[in-house]
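Hi everyone, sorry if this is the wrong subforum. Our group has a chain we'd like a structural model of before ordering constructs, and none of us has done structure prediction before. Sequence below.
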Amino acid sequence: MELDVNQADQDALLLLPGINRKEAEEIIAERSKRGRFLSLAEFMDFLVRLGVPPHHYAVIEKKAIVRYEAALSARVIDF
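Answer:
Right subforum, don't worry. Here is the predicted structure as tokens:
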């Protein structure tokens, strides 16, 4: 099972080991504040600051993914 942490709701985040309801709420709040997590490393770094127990990190890294859509528009400058 892969879980996109940029799309997951609270119930989905609770499926990750070591994540309780309060932490799931904090993940969603942080994601909203940032706009999205840019990488799995950035998400894992946030979990460390939340105090998620280290023995859960390996399992979370296997289950969590960070997918985001880049802006499809580009600015063209013609010289």
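For your construct planning: The chain is about 45% helix and 5% strand. The mean pLDDT is 90.
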